[in-house]
Predict the 3D structure of the following.
Amino acid sequence: MSTKSLKMFILAASLLFITACSSPANSTDEENHTDSRTTAEELNKNEKQDLPDKTLQKGDQDKSVQHLQAALKEINYPIEANGKFDAETTWAITDIQLQLDDLDITGIYDMDTKEAINKAVKDKQEINPGSGLKQPEKDSGAKDKTVANPYEILSVVNKQSALPADYTPVDLVVPDIPFPFTEDLPKKQMRKVAAKALEEMFEASEEAGLDLVAQSGYRSFERQEAIFASNSQEHGKEAANNFSARAGESEHQTGLTMDVTTPSIENQLIIEFGETEEGKWLQQHAADYGYIIRYPKGKEDITNYQYEPWHIRYVGKKAAKEIMINELTLEEYIEKITN
Ligand SMILES: [Zn+2]
């Protein structure tokens, strides 16, 4: 047996152990070790029971979170099985999603992630903690105000909490939606998971007879630096900070944001967009596709941005619905689910 397969066998054996612990003790050690093939088959059955059968995300707190954490610990994640879907659990899930193929990279535990973990274990594919995303230091975010997990779709990027200068998402793509320009510019890009949802949303808006276009998505740290410098020069730093962001503090660097508009207002990004049929439809339906109006009217003191009916941010359906129905900001929602 090679070191690798020995390691997988130990992992397999310990996964079996958790299941055995959580169900009535009805087998003896002898029964478990009669035949290595039987043990492996049993493992495949058992490990599926170990991983929860429902979507779990930041702030969730119950027995199934604890089961998930126990399984993550068994594949060597240094996290606590405290039953609370905390920053460490979010990191572990994000790290796995970055390592395994074809998964939505969200930091949210979903059924595709579950299947991929099961398959990786079955195929003896190693998952190496930290090789997808370096483990954030405990409370490092609180100290230097840097977003520790930029891949998480519930990450808060604002004037108090900035992205690392070197963060460039690995999964940028150009969504198949209308743009009012033909050049192949980097601002057409978004992260895969957000692009997919945006395509669905645009399709639905077209079916409703509307004419949405996408103006500006991903923006690199360097590009944001140049934009802020030019705005500051024209309007002064303080004024510029009300309508544009310093490098690192722009949500556009996440790749989860798109500014959208419509030809009836000459494709501009202006408050009047909110009064167009397209703007009203967006307010009503964005959440069905996992998007929120990130800077709502009347919340300027929380977001530190003026009302921007055109700036939409992908957060996933669960969070989006709660945010839009209860008229929250992302800041308020995160505060609510993590405290
Ligand atoms: Zn924007």
About this structure: The beta strands are 172-173, 190-191, 213-216, 257-261, 291-295, 308-314. Residues 252, 257, 259, 311 surround zinc ion (CB under 6 Å).
